Amino acid sequence: MQVTNEFLQNLRQDYKGATLDASDVDNNPITQFKKWFDDAVTAQVYEPNVMTLATADKSGRPDARIVLLKGVDDDGFRFFTNYLSAKGKQLKRNPYAALVFFWPDLERQVRIEGVVEKLDKETSEAYFITRPIASQIGAVASPQSQVIPDRAVLEERFEDLKNKSEGKLITKPAHWGGYIVKPTRIEFWQGRRSRLHDRINFELIKGSWVKNRLAP
Q: Does the annotation mark 195 as catalytic?
């Protein structure tokens, strides 16, 4: 099969699984998010906590990648990474980000925009020790986003650290930790027939969430 423009133009899916009315959406968007997340877990969506994280570099050019949601409450959405990675450096210069969750099995999408802050050291350490040992070693071994000559260098460094840390507590490296995206806007999207999708948008105005319907 050849991927041509004609093929892509004719590649489409008509959504018909559910509807979304503003009256059915909780007035607290975090509560609503948790309801939808629970639906995704119940539906056995593959890795429901996968989210796209979009940041901007020093020139204002957008940059996006997949990360994993590791916590959510009324304060915001949490994830963990290397502070010296590309995203870490971008967030240091410009502490604003966007998140996107897409659960195709449910024909649902959630878009989030907000201010990003580092989590405190204690919170990051508490999460770090819950990670599998191999993931802890990987966080220490990988100079994330930096150029390396080949994979062998990375694997050798991993094995060296694995051998040296056997039977020992692995300490969270200073360059690794968590962030929280404190939302100022959250949109819930439900796919509908004929591309007339349902979009319920929340905007934080003077400390309160204002809910509106948007045209698709």
A: yes
3-state secondary structure 10-33: CCCCCCCCCCCCHHHCCCCHHHHH
Helix, strand or coil, per DSSP, at residue 142: coil
Q: What pLDDT, in 10s, does the model give residues 8-52? A: 888 888 888 899 999 999 999 999 999 999 999 999 999 999 999
Report field, pTM of the whole predicted structure over 0.90: yes
Residue 208: partners with Cβ closer than 8 Å, 6 or more residues away = none
CA distance 94 to 51: 20
Residues 43, 176: Cα–Cα separation, whole Å: 33
Active-site residue, selected from the candidate residues 65, 193, 195, 213: 195
> In angstroms, rounded to a whole number, what is the distance separating the alpha carbons of residues 1 and 109?
29
Identify each DSSP E strand in 84-197 by its residue range.
96-103, 108-118, 176-190
Please tell me the distance from the alpha carbon of residue 202 to that of residue 99, in angstroms, as a whole number: 14
And the tokens for 158?
Answer: 């991993």
First to last CA, the chain: 32
Q: Which amino acid is at 63?
A: D
